[in-house]
Write a structure and sequence with these properties.
This is TPM domain-containing protein. The protein is about 50% helix and about 15% strand. It has about 160 residues and is an alpha/beta fold. The chain has one domain: Diaminopimelate Epimerase, Chain A, domain 1 (Roll), CATH 3.10.310.50. The protein has a four-stranded mixed sheet, with helices on both faces.
């Protein structure tokens, strides 16, 4: 617990690791990916938890589920929204997929995306890691919710990443 608490107390602001240019690059990756599938991707990053949350034992998964609801990622016509959540202090990625993807994408496939991203984060390649993860999620969505030829891509969720 002390090591995790220390990490959360001294992890800098998420905006320092994700300057505006990187956030625009991530938004562009989401937009490009959504031309190939009918799903919706949302990226949210949180620098650190309040020390009380760390002492309570709050985990990244709990925060991701909360963000999934607050950001209304569940609010898509085909129930195919996906939240990619990053908790910087823990260097932890969580993916929360709406019920339309249940039984289509396995936990192992989602975990593979997380591992890909976590590897890049450990190397200090924050934006590259997120973009690679967004692309991998997009590939999975394209398998199950391909964009119909000539179809109109209705953007149901904002592509702009979110700081929590």
């Amino acid at each position: 617990m002390p090591k995790r608490l220390f990490a959360h107390l001294f992890t800098g602001n998420a905006r320092a690791r994700f300057p505006a240019a990187d956030m625009q690059r991530i938004a562009a990756a989401i937009a490009v990916g959504e031309t190939c599938h009918a799903g919706e991707i949302c990226f949210a990053v949180e620098g650190a938890l309040h020390w009380r949350e760390v002492l309570r034992g709050t985990q990244a998964r709990t925060r991701a589920l909360d963000a999934f609801g607050r950001l209304r990622v569940w609010d898509t016509a085909a129930n195919n929204g996906v939240l990619v959540y990053l908790l910087l202090a823990d260097q932890r990625i969580e993916i929360v997929a709406d019920r339309g993807l249940a039984g289509l994408v396995s936990d192992e496939q989602w975990r593979g995306v997380c591992l890909l991203m976590e590897e890049r984060l450990r190397a200090g390649e924050y934006a590259d890691g997120v973009v690679a993860g967004i692309e991998a999620v997009g590939d999975l969505l394209a398998l199950h919710f391909p964009q119909e030829p000539g179809g109109v891509d209705e953007d149901e969720l904002p592509n702009q990443p979110v700081f929590l």
